[in-house]
Write a structure and sequence with these properties.
Elements (H helix, E strand, L loop, with lengths): L1 E3 L4 H11 L7 E4 L5 E4 L7 E5 L5 H16 L4 E6 L18 H10 L4 E5 L14 E4 L2 H4 L11 E4 L5 H11 L3 E4 L1 E4 L6 E4 L9 E9 L3 H11 L5 E9 L5 H7 L5 E4 L7 E3 L2 H7 L1
Parallel strand pairs: 1-4, 4-5, 5-6, 6-7, 8-9, 8-12, 12-13, 13-14, 14-15
Antiparallel strand pairs: 2-3, 10-11
Helix pairs in contact: 1-8, 6-7
Bound molecules: ribose-5-phosphate.
């Protein structure tokens, strides 16, 4: 059975359709002290696929409970799909005394599963933190299918160097265009992001800015703002994980972004591209 975490209900339903597997209907109960109990009263079968984006601390706890609940209900094999893995960006101790949060989370998740499927982690090396086999999938090429088919002399742009590979993957899937990336600096005390545009000519071209995640929206809005006085034909913004935390959508709108293209690894209004076929192939 496919077993949805509460943050991955639409994706789980799509995955059940795609794979022909039954969909369990977990119940989530919150006690007065704030603790949660996620149960799977209707679970049956030997092979469970728990699908849970961990975009909050509560979602992490819920995932650990669902893994345990399906074992209690008789599953002898558990696969955990992490459409979006929270804490993956804290993959080293950047300052003395800091935790490697991604490793701590990966080890906890590993205790309840036989296998993990991870969609577009910030760095693929995060897979090494798990104690079970991990399939790393890249959903970025799927974003190409949501773009207009007649882009004008397209330029696929990473807002920082680490996103250049994603820009290349989307360009390759689109089948035409150039790629480039901006230089980015972030002040970790204030969260402020500064981007330095590249020399690429953008005038009269359609520009697609691609990143793995839009979280606070600072990176994407600064990148888009930096393009505006260089007269692009149109600017498209695309990401795998459309978290859009706090006032991100407003920041993007203020920078002139009309529409964000994103997948359903995090379920938001902009999640129009489903990763279900990709995950189904891996299962
Ligand atoms: C950083 O290297 C990531 O690839 C993203 O660019 C970043 O995490 C986006 O975060 P925000 O939307 O908060 O700027």
């Amino acid at each position: 059975m496919i077993v949805p975490g509460s943050a991955s209900q639409a994706l789980s339903a799509a995955l059940a359709d795609e794979t022909g597997r039954a969909l369990a209907t977990p119940e989530y109960h919150w006690f007065a002290d704030g603790e949660e109990r996620a149960s799977v009263a209707d679970y049956e079968g030997e092979s469970a696929v728990v699908v849970a984006t961990t975009d909050s601390n509560d979602a992490f706890v819920e995932l650990l409970q669902l893994q345990d609940a399906v074992r209690e209900a008789g599953a002898s094999e558990v696969t955990t799909v992490l459409p979006y893995m929270g804490y993956a960006r804290q993959d080293r101790a950047f300052e003395p005394g800091q935790p490697v949060s991604a490793r701590a989370m990966a080890q906890a998740i590993s205790t309840g599963t036989d296998r993990v499927v991870l969609v577009t982690p910030h760095e693929p090396d995060v897979a090494e933190f798990f104690d079970v086999p991990v399939d790393v999938l890249d959903a970025s090429p799927l974003l190409a299918g949501a773009l207009p088919t007649d882009l004008t002399d397209p330029l696929f742009l990473g807002p920082d160097e680490s996103a250049e590979g994603l820009a290349v993957a989307v360009r390759d899937a689109y089948g035409a265009g150039e790629t480039d990336f901006f230089e980015k600096e972030r002040d970790y005390d204030t969260g402020e992001v500064t981007v330095t545009p590249s020399d690429a000519s953008v005038a009269d071209r359609d520009v697609v800015v691609v990143d793995d995640i839009i979280a606070t929206g600072s990176t994407m809005s600064e990148a888009v703002a930096a393009l505006h006085d260089r007269d692009p034909a149109a600017v498209y913004t695309a990401c795998v994980h459309g978290m859009l935390a706090a006032n991100a959508r407003t920041k993007l709108a203020a920078a002139g972004v009309k529409r964000v293209l994103a997948t359903d690894t995090i379920e938001r209004e902009c999640s129009t591209v489903s990763v279900a076929p990709l995950v189904a192939d891996s299962l």
